[in-house]
Amino acid sequence: MRDAPFSGLYFMFYTQLKRVFPETQSNSVWSPLAVFGCGLAAGCFASVITQPFDVIKTQIQLNPNQFDSVYQVIHYLYARVGLVAFMSGLLPRIIRRTLVAAMSWTVSKTRRFSRASAISFRCVHCDLDLCIAMLSSSSNP
Questions:
Q1: What is the pLDDT, as a whole number, of residue 114?
Q2: Nearest-CA neighbor of 100 among 55, 43, 62?
Q3: d(CA 37, CA 21)
Q4: How far is residue 113's CA from residue 131's CA, in Å, rounded to a whole number?
Q5: Is the distance from CB of 94 to CB of 44 less than 8 angstroms?
Q6: Do 9 and 46 meet the contact criterion of CB atoms below 8 Å apart?
Q7: Residues 23-69: tens digit of each pLDDT
Q8: Nearest alpha-carbon partner for 36 in 126, 100, 114
Q9: DSSP secondary structure of 66-79
Q10: pLDDT averaged over every residue in the chain
Q11: CA-based max dimension of the chain
């Protein structure tokens, strides 16, 4: 339930952005790049829209005894920092969530990957597993 708004917006933006590319290019060599680009853009749009709500939710979770309503949290954040408070932490969120979502969609939507061409490594900062798959010209779709 926590990720439902982001996922719903992500999927909506992704499908709309995907319509920009002609159907004839869906099987081209550039298809994974187009899917990844649509995924990145969709993730950025969805993150910007859902970030203020996540900031409010986080404030309520961090200070459960300080606030009685969502309105109090909004007023507190606005009075303390201004509108920029609602976008606090947006860049790390975009980097982490958007890249992971875009890579997942690229791998799931592109069937031209061979097992031998995948490189996997672990990020030492956030303990996140990353897998980069490269196109293989000898693989069958």
A1: 41
A2: 43
A3: 11
A4: 12
A5: yes
A6: yes
A7: 545 566 777 888 888 889 999 999 999 999 999 999 999 998 999 99
A8: 100
A9: T-SSHHHHHHHHHH
A10: 78
A11: 61
Contact (CB, 8 A) for 90 and 58: no
Reported for 123-128, long-range contacts at CB under 8 A and 24+ positions apart, including other chains, are: 126/96, 128/96, 128/100
Strand (E) or helix (H) holding 26: none
CA atoms in the 13 A half-sphere facing the CB of 5: 11
With residue 117 as reference, give the H or E element that holds it: strand 113-122
Q: 94 is written with which tokens?
A: 């975009």
The amino acid occupying position 38 is C
Confidence class for position 19, pLDDT limits 50, 70, 90: confident
Per the structure block, which two tokens stand in for 88?
């606090």
CA separation, residue 86 to residues 3, 64, 76, 81, 82 (Å): 18, 18, 11, 9, 8
Q: Taking a C-beta distance cutoff of 8 angstroms, is the pair 51, 6 a contact? A: no
In the prediction, which pLDDT does 117 show?
47
